[in-house]
Amino acid sequence: MESSASLELAKHALLMFGTILAVGTFSGVIARLVRIPDVAVFLLVGMLIGPGVLSVVNIKADSTINQLILIFGSSYILFDGGASIRLKVLKEVWITLLLIATVGVLITAAITGIAAYYFLGLAPIVALLLGATLASTDPATLVPVFKQVRIKDRVAQTVMSESAFNDAMGAILTFTVLSVAMGAGGFSVGDALTDLLKQSLLGIVIGGALGYLAAFFIAHEKFGFLAEFAPVVTLMAVIGAYMGADGMHASGFMAVFVFGIMIGNQESLGFKLAPQEGSLLEDYVMTTAFIMRMFIFILLGTQVDFSLMNQYLFGGAAVVVVFMLVARPATVFLCALPDRRAKWSFKEMLFMCWTRETGVIPGALAGMLVGMKAPGAQIIASVTFIAILMTILIQATTTKWLAKKLGLLL
Hints:
The protein is an all-alpha fold. Helix content is 78%, strand content 0%. The chain is built from 16 helices and no strands.
């Protein structure tokens, strides 16, 4: 009986995966025809086939399968984003990147928290917890958007890098505020900064070390015996980078992003992959990343709780409007203007103000808060989903249009 139950469960999971692949492929075609980022279409289709409407796909947010897809999918998409980053560009904008991924998270959280206090009538600490949950950007959303919409290199790479580097800061801030909200201790700036530095540096070291080793065994002229197995090596190393960093209480997402940077800049490290193997690896990564974002955003759409959203719809939407139109612009201008070296133009900063989608990472943080029964967790989860829907459906779909208007398209 136990074996039969396991078999039925496996068949059900296989059916769900097949359905997501079929629906996702069709959705990708639609996205290409209407010329909008496919993540927006995936999200809408997910809402349609989820329990709230057609109930074709029903995979619980707290299930092992869903968590596996979220962790590996986000990691692989982030690796893909890192591989498209050029070290030359990062050297030019590193001051802005450092400020926006650290101080910028605090600015966004504070302004959003104030909006939540006034529009939702939350206690100050719960309002700040909501602001902290929404403060980090989402690499799983931003990387695919910039893969499809070709923007001026330094702008696209700054925003993509920010989405990787502010993950640690967002998580640390969220759980620091949570400890205060639950009476587990007071806020300590020193402890928070120490934790952030530890998570960041360990993530960078682990990702850099694994990235160098992978590049060495894939593309070294003499020792590159894994060149024809490069796609498998990337899978193994992405998992290894995330799990290694996570096991050392570092940022797993930062580790896989840095790993991607190392693989994408092999020539700067003195390695060169043969053209045929390089093309094979590029095609494999592109296809795998497409499948991962298909699964992530369709599943995210199926898990939208319409009844919960309706309870706080208007107040939540007002908070998100402030989040999009006040908090983000304040963050960008306050963090980019001091960087005289980068010499950002007004149009570039205006574009960065608009490209600030919310997705998997804030959604995962909100889910953790619900599971921990944090104060105001249901309201936080509701507003987080509203933010995910509004930013992806409004900002992601207008990214190309705005870039064209501002003259930033390549």
